[in-house]
From TrEMBL:
Protein family (similarity comment): Belongs to the TRAFAC class myosin-kinesin ATPase superfamily. Myosin family.
Domain Myosin N-terminal SH3-like as annotated: residue spans: 1-43
Native organism taxonomy: Eukaryota, Viridiplantae, Streptophyta, Embryophyta, Tracheophyta
UniProt binding sites for ATP: G144, E145, S146, G147, A148, G149, K150, T151
Region entry Actin-binding, spans: 601-623
Record protein name field: Myosin motor domain-containing protein
UniProt cross-references to SUPFAM superfamilies, sorted A to Z: P-loop containing nucleoside triphosphate hydrolases
Superkingdom, taxonomy of origin: Eukaryota
GO cellular component entries: cytoplasm; membrane; myosin complex
GO terms assigned for molecular function: actin filament binding; ATP binding; calmodulin binding; microfilament motor activity
GO biological process, one term: actin filament-based movement
Residues annotated as domain Myosin motor: 50-643
Organism the protein comes from: Aegilops tauschii subsp. strangulata (Goatgrass)
A Pfam family it matches: Myosin_head
């Protein structure tokens, strides 16, 4: 084992009691090492060609063995490798069209897993055959860190399934085509450039493809998780906002219609100076998105309403405020801001005066009646951003709902194949609420994986009449209890803090430590009173609680709801059907992001546990998104964090 390379290849030339002398293969250098730092490896001869297509063929199945096997194969553009029935896919960062053409799909059709070279089509085919033969629903869980290739892999799986489960004659509006075209559509609204990936999915998704009894695709349902809505109002260079905004600004006539200038003229887009993506033309993408909408079945008038709403969000972001009559009040700053205000109202088809009052004031319900409270400039700007985020998040949900409606659900479906594309475990220098939720999801998936592997082993051992109580079950229930147990788990305590107006992240943190101090997986950190560290299955992660309360609150302001439900555009008003009675008493309706996510995960787990799972683990070979570059340290980190 070596620091820089993770592991290096060497040959032992002299073995002593407390040390060994080895020759490093790459440098022909002799060094002395501690014996416990050495692991045995397969020689090239006994691997037959220097690498194997299944890790279980290694005589020495250890970390460096796995690493070197992947590395050797990657150098040969053999990006797929099995570990038993799990597929490891190393991102090639270059198009490999010969791997994915129709000829290849035909090759893998009906062939036993492992008979041909490892391939994502083989996994898709195995799930399809298992569904047909066992009449049991299947799931394919695609995991990996950002940029590892989950979305591309998911699309290839969907392509394969629509190929084998499609009808012979394809028309443009077939279910298969609609299922496939839902991808570019969701990407336009849910993907963005981040520092790690130019086309990063900012939401999780589970696509369930339904099949009839003859194995033909008969419907599909998409569920999405945790859209990163803060991106709508805040981005840092060189990241971008969601793709759809740039597409619309570059759309020519349509942009003119909504009085949109270049992306750089909008506050929500010019916080970062990155407007273009390498190799991508925003205008072409706009037409691709429109075409996807056509195929999926979003009507032209709904399309207009959608883009009109996007344009409204951009104008809304350009409204600035200046101090009003009183120092703690605000008004629309100047004629430019007023122009954007009028545009926003026109595009949202609502009353401009009502828009002003819902931006600059807030009504508070008290025992004495309703009091109108003025908002200062900072509060008004925050209020404006909250409105933008709410509109965008609801628009995204509307899209998903309507894609589902349009594709159609087959209630008589015999079995389904679900494909899960969700963020892998995350551990950064700074970890916030998002990482907390993502890692919670990964703990859930880990539990599902453990249970599945355990069940499989149990069955295997039972059939071999071995007493399986010897098998250790790696249980992470204690971790899940720490996070989600009621009434004293991190999420429950966070929700409680969010409901008390006086709480701060500090009071939340201290209450958490008071209540959960004895939990072995929770620690306080040395230099902060408010950070906490959790020992996840994949390693320790320290979370900063600073914005936990704010990010967990998903309240919808009554004024916003009133404003938008009064819109003369049915799509916009439909996004904000009236508030439930109880919430009218307070101006804010608190709803917890974490609790909703927890419920969604619970539902997902229930679905998954009724299926037979298949796993694809995507690996990102380097952090600069370059082909033919394999960085040991980074890959090792992913292998260690992996499900
Ligand atoms: N099989 C593949 N062949 C060619 N290129 C690929 C393949 N898989 C991934 N890539 C390249 O890597 C990029 C990142 O992949 P992808 O968007 O699927 O990652 P991801 O794991 O879904 O990331 P995120 O979590 O950020 O959404 C793609 O845009 C593409 O350029």
């Amino acid at each position: 084992e070596e620091k820089g390379e993770g592991w290096v290849e060497a040959e032992v030339v002299e073995a002593k009691d407390r040390s060994a002398v080895v020759v490093l293969t790459s440098q022909r250098k002799k060094i002395s090492v501690l014996p416990e730092k050495l692991l045995p490896r397969d020689t090239d001869e006994n691997l037959g060609g220097g690498h194997v297509d299944d890790m279980t063929k290694l005589t020495y199945l250890n970390e460096p063995g796995v690493l070197y096997n992947l590395k050797r194969r990657y150098a040969l553009n053999e990006i797929y490798t099995y570990t038993g029935s799990i597929l490891i896919a190393v991102n090639p960062f270059t198009r490999l069209p010969h791997l994915y053409n129709e000829y290849m799909m035909e090759q893998y059709k009906g062939v036993q897993l492992g008979e041909l070279s490892p391939h994502v089509f083989a996994v898709a085919d195995a799930s399809y055959r298992a569904m047909l033969n066992d009449s049991m629903s299947q799931s394919i869980l695609v995991s990996g860190e950002s940029g590892a290739g989950k979305t591309e892999t998911t699309k290839l799986i969907m392509r394969y399934l629509t190929y084998v489960g499609g009808r012979a004659v394809l028309d443009d509006r077939s279910v298969e085509q609609q299922v496939l075209e839902s991808n570019p559509l969701l990407e336009a609204f849910g993907n963005a450039k981040t520092v790690r990936n130019d086309n990063s999915s900012r939401f999780g998704k589970f696509v369930e493809i339904q099949f009839d009894k003859s194995g033909r695709i008969s419907g599909a349902a998409i569920r999405t998780y945790l859209l990163e809505r803060s991106r709508v109002v805040q981005i840092t260079d060189p990241e971008r906002n969601f793709h759809c905004f740039y597409q619309l600004c570059a759309s020519g006539k349509d942009a003119e219609l909504y009085k949109l200038g270049h992306a750089s003229t909008f506050h929500y887009l010019n916080q970062s100076k990155t407007y273009e993506l390498e190799g991508i033309n925003n205008e072409d993408e706009y037409w691709k998105t429109k075409r996807a909408m056509d195929i999926v079945g979003i009507s032209r008038s709904d399309q207009d309403a959608i883009f009109r709403t996007l344009a409204a969000i951009l104008h809304l972001g350009n409204i600035e405020f200046s101090p009003g009559k009183d120092s703690d009040s605000s008004k629309i700053k100047d004629s430019t801001s007023n122009f954007h205000l009028q545009m926003t109202a026109t595009l949202l088809m609502c009353d401009p005066d009502l828009l002003v009052s819902s931006l600059c004031t807030r009504s508070i319900h008290t025992n004495e009646g309703i009091i109108i409270k003025e908002l200062d400039c900072a509060a008004a700007a925050a209020n404006r951003d909250a409105l933008s985020k709410t509109i965008y998040a609801r628009l995204f949900d509307w899209l998903v709902e309507n894609i589902n409606k349009s594709i159609g659900q087959d209630v008589d479906s015999k079995a389904q194949i679900g494909v899960l594309d969700i963020y892998g475990f995350e551990s950064f220098k700074h970890n916030s609420f998002e990482q907390f939720c993502i890692n919670f999801a990964n703990e859930k998936l880990q539990q599902h994986f453990n249970e599945h592997v355990f069940k499989m082993e149990q069955e295997e051992y039972k059939s071999e009449k071995i007493n399986w109580s010897y098998i250790e079950f790696i249980d992470n229930q204690d971790m899940l209890d720490l996070i989600e147990k009621k009434p004293i788990g991190i999420i429950a305590l966070l929700d409680e803090a969010c409901m008390f107006p006086k709480s701060t992240h500090a009071t939340f943190a201290s209450k958490m430590f008071r209540n959960l101090s004895s939990h072995p997986r929770l620690e306080k950190t040395k230099f902060s009173e408010t950070d906490f560290t959790i020992s996840h299955y994949a390693g320790k992660v320290t979370y900063q609680t600073d914005s936990f309360l704010e990010k967990n609150r998903d309240y919808i302001v009554a004024e916003h709801c009133n404003l938008l439900s009064s819109s003369r555009c049915s799509l916009v008003s439909g996004l904000f059907s009236s508030l439930p009675e109880e919430s009218l008493r307070s101006s804010y309706k608190f709803s917890s992001v974490a609790s909703r996510f927890k419920q969604q995960l619970q539902a997902l787990m229930e679905t998954l546990s009724s299926t037979e799972p298949h796993y694809v683990r995507c690996v990102k070979p380097n952090s600069v998104n370059r082909p033919q570059l394999f960085e040991n340290q980074s890959v090792l980190h992913q292998l260690r964090c992996g499900v």
